[in-house]
Write the structure tokens for this entry.
Amino acid sequence: MRKQKGVILLGIILGFIIIASLVMWYGSTRWFNQNDYPYYNHMIGGWGMPFGMIAMGIFWIVIIYFLFNGLNYREEYHMEKAVEALKTRLAKGEITIDEYEALLEKIKEKS
């Protein structure tokens, strides 16, 4: 469920960046005259700004997405490690089945 919300949020942010860059591209011809801004044609005839903005937005969204995914993976890894430790203790006879189930429920509540 968390990953699905993350993907939806990623799509919304990406869509917003694309729409904003298209608005900037469309409006840039009306905002800047060649007389007012002498380097207007320098950036691929005005196309450089929106595509550069889209690329930068996608770059940061990807970085943030992988950062959050890495943090979620780390939490899942620690939970799996705790469950494995419980299974080992149960197999060695250090805890009973009732204690195992109670501890397993506590681990699942924390995650």
Notes: DSSP finds three helices and no strands in the chain.
